[in-house]
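Q: Can I see a sequence and its folded structure?
A: Here is a first one.
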Amino acid sequence: MTERRTVYLRPMTADDTAKIVAWRNRDFVRRNFIYQELFTEEGHREWIRTQVEPGHVVQFVICLSDGREIGSVYFRDIDRAAGTAEYGIFIGEEDALGCGYGTAAAHLALAYAFDELGLDRVFLRFLSDNIGARISYERAGFRLTDRRETVSTMQGEREVRFMETDRSIWKAQAESRGSGKGDGDE
């Protein structure tokens, strides 16, 4: 993908395994994931082999315009027949949190989902006490649904909320931002 403002996405490769595992295992990242077990390089290579290579997952590394890599964004459980996928993101560099990079990455990722993958709807799940994530998702164009679940995490029982956006809503929001692609940072 091409660079847009302060953030660009590049496809994740097997060479990114050590970096992805290190980011994903940081406490400030793990505590905001539903699945909180430690990742291993072997497990990540298996993810690439069984999920990325067959096209069930598309994953990118989030890069700043100076080339610094700060996290990852992905679509999982891609169902091309139904036109749906689940969105996920994590910022693995603590000093990059709260800077708008996640929202900018989401704009780029959603442009890819709707324009390149041809999806019609993208949804996500997040732990309801992760307020920063919710704000970023809303800025990216996701809207809360009524769906809720409860999960057991290392911190105890926590509520999971669902958000989604679809092609027509997202395109209208992108046009109102003036870009037509939904890119940029906020």
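Q: Show me another, different protein.
A: A second, unrelated one:
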Amino acid sequence: MGFLFLVCAIQGFAQTASSPTPQKKSPAVPQKIASLNICIDQLLWELVAHERLVSLSYLTANPAWSPIAKQVQGMPLNHGLAEEIVPLHPDVIFAGEFDAPNAIELLQKLGKRVERLPLPRKLGDINEQILQLANTVGAQEKAQHMVEKINTEIAGLQMANAGKTPLTAFWYSSNGVVIGDGTLEHELMQLAGLRNLAAERGMFGFNQLDLELLLSAKPQILIIEESQDESFSLAREYLLHPALKHADFKMVILPAGLSGCAASVIGDVALTLKQELAK
């Protein structure tokens, strides 16, 4: 009996030793995706099959804010409320850095998977955001193509203006705001070979500047983003002032959305900026 016990023990040990160590299963690619953020919506629309999107932000269906508003007509929408999301049983819920904190806290308490994506603050952040999103939803190949296209446009902007004498410029927006150092816009201006007069005056981020001071600085270039909203706005009235129309500088109009959803439009903005500066 002792001999038989010893044989069985040896066989059992041999089987255990030869058995492969159990591998942790990587999380399954989520098939039901919800988003609380208009910018993430636009990336998801490009990266995944639309039937996988069980809910998008209501802002994405508003043409005043979203370039894909017409395309998402009929899609389930949410207003950032947990009670709108829970019945849909999504595998993952995406949110931005500042979206619906109360709803997200509740969703997490209910055991829902919530992925927060930080707001891009520089060019490198944009590619990271796209790739991070793609890794979660299983769209790495499409994301890689998207990143390569962005990098190509950025490189083209930089090469087109290499060696040229830097022109002075303001990036001017609604409410008489100019954009200074520490911003994505400032980084683009540097790549385009422009001197950011706001940054040279020690301005950081977004600052209001009197129209008289802007004109007295005599910029050679004034950069303005298009508005997706065609309706009347007092904030946009700053950009229609007669003094701007008759000033001695070149006005460069860029596609809308950089300050809101940079990842979706950065390539188009870089291309347009390159083309406008070449004229």
